[in-house]
Amino acid sequence: MGGTVVEVTEVGLRDGLQAEPRIVPTADKIAVFDALVAAGLRRFEVSSFVSPRAVPQLADAADVLAGIARRPDLTLACLVPNEKGAERAIAAKVDEMVTFVSASESHNRTNVNRPIADSLRGFGEVARMAAAHDIVVHGAVATAFGCPFEGDVAPARVVEIVGRMAAIGIRGVTLGDTTGMATPPIVRAVCGAIRDAHPEIAVTLHFHNTRGIGLVNVMAGLDAGITRFESSVGGLGGCPFAPGATGNISTEDLVYLLDETGHETGIDLAAMLPIARRMEQLVGHPLPGQLMKAGPRLALYPLDAVRRAVG
Ligand code: COA
Ligand code: ZN
Questions:
Q1: CA-to-CA distance for 105 and 112, rounded, in angstroms?
Q2: In this predicted model, which residue has the larger pLDDT, 181 or 306?
Q3: Helix runs in the chain, H state only
Q4: Which residue's CA is the closest to the ligand 1 atom numbered 22?
Q5: b/e string for 260-279 if b means 16 or more Cβ within 10 A?
Q6: Is the CB of 206 within 6 Å of ligand 1?
């Protein structure tokens, strides 16, 4: 082996479940989490400390955190939109708070009911609260590759927001493609602009497969030197506050691509497939992940497993 190490953050329990009509019971979320850890995942967005009225699917964030067996090699991150969320995240002993803002004004308003400037002002207080409890703050920029209300988002806009995050001490930033508007040239442009302006920032890419090129965008990200990606078991996911949003790239499909291109993730693809199928049962509808249906390319079948086309 000896390939480049790629860090995969599993966001299925957060981004994945936040838009599902069926609310998954806390005990099932914890069981899926445990299975994902057994499959080799180490970094998670486990839930959001947002308004339970806005996102009832994640109202049990504190219970999920309390029910998970903590290990020093795991990182448990949760979305935090404001000071109230920070208080709840501190009480639940999260490892990381993810403060988030959209790169486009209209999505920020639908998502967190305030202008971008107010979100950015709020980050300072959240960061102070986190620092007082030795909790890392991670930044996330939604609609970083395009906005369903405003269209193209200028890379300079993303650079400016990342700069504001860097100024309050944030060192890791996720660029989110909330409604799957990224294309390889856009990925190259945004990643290049961030690298030039803020080489100290560790960039993570978060793609949705809305238009079928999520993994193509991962390849563009890898070519741009990015080694951190977010994905969701079974390809679950979508922002409830963006029209036409669909699932994240699937973790199994991502791991398959990374395995086949000589990257190391520490994740056992074979162990992921039953977890994706379990998630499908929990949400009660088919999931878009492809490996969970087809298996890896060298999973061979006995010749008598199919009907023979004899005339
Ligand atoms: N956790 C729990 N409750 C919260 C909260 C938090 N982090 N923030 C606010 N609330 C409660 C308030 O206490 C208040 O409750 P009350 O009416 O019972 O007193 C109510 O929510 C409204 O508070 P307000 O500050 O006016 O919030 P808002 O209505 O402007 O909504 C957000 C702002 C940020 C709380 C809300 O838009 C939200 O949770 N967005 C999250 C969106 C999301 O998760 N998107 C997907 C990820 S990209
Ligand atoms: Zn997302």
A1: 11
A2: 181
A3: 26-38, 61-67, 83-91, 105-112, 116-132, 155-167, 184-197, 214-223, 251-260, 269-283, 291-294
A4: 51
A5: eeebebebebeebbebbbbb
A6: no
Query: Can you tell me which atom of ligand 1 is nearest the CA of 18?
Result: 46
Cα gap 135→119, rounded to integer Å: 19
* Residue 285 CA neighbour count, 13 Å, CB half: 11
Please count the other Cβ atoms lying within 10 Å of the Cβ belonging to residue 38.
11
**241-273 pLDDT per residue, tens:** 888 889 999 999 999 999 999 999 999 999 999
- Supply φ then ψ for residue 263, to 5 degrees: -100, 155
Q: Is the pLDDT of residue 311 over 90?
A: no
Nearest CA to ligand 1 atom 4: 51
**How far is the C-alpha of 207 from the C-alpha of 202, rounded, in Å?**
16
Which ligand has an atom closest to residue 107 CA?
Answer: 1
**Rounded to whole angstroms, how far apart are CA atoms 167 and 161?**
10
What is the whole-number distance in angstroms between the Cα of residue 16 and the centre of ligand 2?
8
Cβ count within 10 A of residue 88: 18
- For residue 238, the CA-to-ligand 2 centroid distance in Å is 6
Q: Which residues are catalytic?
A: 239
Written as six digits, the tokens of 273 are 């497939």
Q: Which fold has domain 7-305?
A: TIM Barrel (3.20.20)
Residue with CA at minimum distance from ligand 1 atom 3 = 51
**Closest C-alpha among 258, 280, 255, 279 to residue 269:** 255
List the chain domain ranges. Answer: 7-305
pLDDT at 306 over 90: no
CA-55 nearest atom, ligand 1 = 44
To the question of pTM greater than 0.90 for the whole model, the response is: yes
